[in-house]
Amino acid sequence: MRLALLGCGTVGSEVVRLLHSQSADLAARIGAPLEIAGIAVRRIGRDRGELPVDPAVFTSDPFDLVKRDDVDVVVECVGGIEPARSWLVEALRAGKSVVTANKVLLAEDGGTLHDAAAQGGGDLYYEAAVAGAIPLLRPLRESLHGDRVTQVTGIVNGTTNFILSAMDTTGAGFAEALAEATDLGYAEADPTADVEGFDAAAKAAILASLAFHTRVGAADVHREGITEVTAADVASAKAMGCTIKLLCIAARGAAADGRETVSVRVHPAMIPLTHPLASVGDAFNAVFVEAEAAGQLMFYGPGAGGAPTASAVLGDVVAVSRNRLAGVRAASESAYADLPVRPMGEALTRYHISLDVTDRPGVLAAVAGVFAQHDVSIATVRQGSAGSGVAGRDEDADLVIVTHVAPDAALAATVQALRGLDTVRSVASVLRVEGSA
Ligand code: NDP
Ligand code: HSE
Questions:
Q1: Is 199 close to ligand 2, i.e. is its CB under 6 Å away?
Q2: Among 37-51, 137-151, 239-253, 379-393, which is the least confidently predicted range?
Q3: Alpha carbon distance 169, 318 (integer Å)
Q4: Of 47, 273, 335, 426, which sits with the fewest C-beta atoms within 10 Å of its C-beta?
């Protein structure tokens, strides 16, 4: 079985090492030895340390490599949309099988890759694209196909989980925790994709597509990052017995007209400390899957890093290689349900709202009236004076309100209206609350 490896960076170089160190076992599991036909990189002369591979296999021409007749499987560890998409479409149309870790491409235009795979008759596997080493996509695309998945809730970005965990543990602000994540090598020099939620949104789109048999793209995902989360938000969450996590939530549900839909969103949220995702610390990932017959399933582990990600890549290489030797291909993309994606405004959630208000008679009634006007039910109200913890007449007071479940649009409109009240000096923070476990 001859492999073309595209990319030999953090992940690709570990794929090479594992291919070498596990070669006998991999050959036994597949029924044929795996050989590297070529490795395409950008800088052919780059120092790659001690890599157990013949330097002659390196090329700077990925197109030429994927088209070669002696290549059976293309393993893509480069990333980005172009030129990766063109390489993989070329390979798939030529009947080769593809293994990729490229979540950005799959979320942006996975349909084109699936169509090319169907056309060429090869396999398209991408376990490493979501949650690194955690076996998660195979369970969704195979093991759970006898069931009906209702919701997938996950922590799928290690960098932001490290930052939020550090803020929770040390009381640090966002900037300080990001600096620590950068120093320790968790956050990249440009952390935008992680802290603004783009990385998690791409993964959410892939998870939703598999869970709900529907093509969901990155543009379908409502996305908010963690840059606005403050130390005060974290302290407020703690006071409620909660912690703050960047969650990806993909859920089935009925739209206002009764039609079945899916909603997919990524945003920071408070979750109770009793929720299974609350204890997922540092840079770990975890995904909580709820299905009608199976009940609640939890997948946990390292979501990034060269070796963990390469483990998932190699697992896929074994699967597609076995299929090729047997002359079969895995089941095609399952997108038959084709469910519409519900707008964020219709997603059902709860808000935790901190208000800085004037402490005098009638203020609470006015605030409560705004919630009532928007058909939002209040679950709890807590009041203290700003700073001292004891409310005094005609002074400022902190009002912390947690709602019951309501459509996000109604909750957002409530917050907007609160900002317009004379007695509300400021809306100090707004966070969603998820998982009533
Ligand atoms: P790196 O930046 O470490 O490596 C990228 C590799 O691609 C390098 O070898 C680079 O060549 C090569 N490359 C870049 N552009 C080209 C080009 N135009 N032609 C040929 N080769 C090119 O990335 P990672 O290994 O971190 O990530 C690879 C993929 O894995 C991405 O899709 C990423 O999202 C995904 N992934 C990464 C994880 C991680 O923890 N790092 C976790 C899960 C998924 P050169 O070496 O010469 O610069
Ligand atoms: N930047 C990603 C993370 C890498 O922090 O989880 C894995 O996709």
A1: yes
A2: 379-393
A3: 41
A4: 47
Quick: pLDDT tens for 244-292: 999 999 999 988 788 999 999 999 999 999 999 999 999 999 999 999 9
> What whole-number distance in Å separates Cα of residue 433 and Cα of residue 29?
46
* Per-position DSSP letters for 101-120, written without gaps between them: --HHHHHHHHHHHHHHHHHH
**Ligand 1 pocket list (CB less than 6 A):** 7-12, 40-43, 46, 62, 77-79, 83, 101-103, 128, 132, 304-305, 309
Neighbours of 287 (CB within 10 A): 26
pTM greater than 0.70: yes
430 CA to middle of ligand 2, Å?
A: 26
Active site residue 67: no
In the chain the domains, ranked by start, together with CATH numbers, are 2-132+307-326 (3.40.50.720), 137-303 (3.30.360.10), 346-433 (3.30.70.260)
In the sheet that holds 97-100, the strands lie side by side as: 58-59, 35-40, 2-6, 73-76, 97-100, 124-125
